[in-house]
Please model this.
Amino acid sequence: MKWLEKPKISLFQILFVSYYPFGYKPCVEIITDKRGVNSVRKTKRKFDKVLSCIPIACLSVTWISCGFAIFIVAIESKTRLEMVLNPKVWSWCFGLLLASCCSIVYKVWIVDDIDLSVKMANEVLKIERELVEGSRRRWNRSSTRFQFFDWFTISFYLQSPILVSGVISADAEPFLFLVKYFLVKFDPNFTFVTRLLLPGYGKIFQLILLLLSIWPIVNLVVYELSRILILYLSGLINASQKASNILHTLQKKVRRNGVFFHKKYFLYYSRLRIISQSVYSEVMIFMVQILAVLGMVICTSTFIVVRLHGKFSIQDALLTRERGHS
Model:
């Protein structure tokens, strides 16, 4: 096969499937054979039903924890300015939006009908291969867009443990924030915690054991969120790129031959139309999701600007932050 000189394994497949820190594979994976032909297949896993619940559980814990943490900060803040200047709130808002979007994507594309998603992806790849094999010109598979996405994937994979360590040390982990808040709220003297502590140096052992158990759990949630996000963005970028290349190649062939309703070319357009109609509802949900997120960001920003306009200056903001630190 001349259109691809050597197999190119997906970076997602290498980092988030083959060398995933927690071992188990996602529900789908990208396979590259010796000829360099890519295909998507549903992963065959032991205890598939149990493993399928892990992404849903991680996403649910993330957006529920972030949502409750934001709610608690909102009711405990004395002023709106104090809440706006709290960097934890912004990080939790970002986590809430990200986890909510990933939950919808996972529900629509994976939980509802993973077989349809895999079949449509392989059909697009098949059309691309057929067009490339019939073309003398080799397609350039490397682009700045994909190189940037590769660096984006690597950074997500390597920075997740560092990010988790920083979030925990900064007391910005939402679940631990909730635990700490309810302990202080309902047990201000820490009577319950004191009863659980061992005497002497046993307290140090318990603290180390607690940290060693919390860190991998939070890492699992972050890695799972990253894997779903990377898988979604990878599918979105590749699908749009391949559809654009297919349509561009068909357009060139039609112009060259001068006949649109050639049986061969008409079948390609028909196959693309069937694919687009099959995933029409999923694409519409994605568009509504993007518009909803943009609307929430714009409305929140406008609300903050309007409500706080003229009520504080930069000096007041700095003084408020200094009082909070003190």
